[in-house]
Model the fold of this input.
Amino acid sequence: MINRFRRSFHNLFALVIGIDTYKNTDNHNLSNLKGAVADADAMVDFLRRGLQVPDRNVRVLRNERATRKEIINAIASLGSREDIPKNSPILIYYAGHGATSKHTAYALPNTSTPLRSPNFEVLVPSDIDVGSKQVPDSGAQVTGIADYEIRHRLNQVAKQKGNNIVGSWQGINSF
Done:
């Protein structure tokens, strides 16, 4: 059945993230994983070989390249890339640690929108620093990427490229 639709996937764009190795595994029960990168690589193989998505349309972040900054920048760049036509399908696939955290504020940052729940979900980037107060040379702690932050960034991409975005989050709740 894939053969029948191969041409229609040449305009699919994907961001694939797989994290097995975390910088700070000795903090707060954060352990390295053994299958997240393999899952991400299987998705890349399916996209490239199974659906014939061109290599240039698939961006992959693995392990130490999947930092908080790189993940956020890669999502944002989906909206600004000139080679992505409006209304093209966009896939974001994440395999790695996930977590639930408690809000410390009563509204989303820079808004008066009240939060619906005291908890939120986060993707855990490879450089998360749960146990220390600051990240060297930056003065700030590297945190997870909250669900509401991802939603905000995907809304920005949708405004620029159309609302044809699919996310698959294979997060292992770890701490």
User: Anything to note?
Assistant: The radius of gyration is 17 Å. Strands lie at 13-18, 58-62, 90-102, 119-123, 145-146, 165-173. The longest strand covers residues 90-102.
